[in-house]
Hints:
Order of helices and strands: HHH
Shape: flat
Distance between the termini: 117 Å
Number of helices: 3
Structural class: mainly alpha
Low-confidence stretches: none
Helix content: 55-70%
Strand content: under 5%
Mean pLDDT: 74
Oligomer: single chain
Largest sheet: none
Amino acid sequence: MTERGTRVRWSTAALVAPAAAALFTGTTVWAAGHEPATASTATTSTVAPAPKVDPLVVALRAAIDKNTAQVDRLRATVVALQARAAAIAKGAAVPRTAASRSTSSTRTSTRTTTATASRNTTRATTAAAKPTPAPATQTTTGASGAVA
């Protein structure tokens, strides 16, 4: 009897296994081809709320605008000074403008700073030029160092 029950189970498994594999394959293929359903099928357009403005971003943009304006003013000054330098190189008389007056005061302060710096450098060079005396040599060993 044991043999008859074993044959029945193998026969049933041989028939059911391909059917189960076909069913599993079919459902997998169907699931891969279909999008899952959403809870609401009606498509209503909702207006997205306006994003919050970060105060740090606002401050940075203001700083960028301020610096951009300053760079534009400096570029205009450079162009004016280049034109003035070209006119001076040609030997033409050049009237003094507001930009040249401000650079004139800058040049004066630069000269003062340069003169002060050169005096300080001369003092430092003079002090560094004096060599320090060599340490005394010991008479017993001949090595240099402090005498005890």
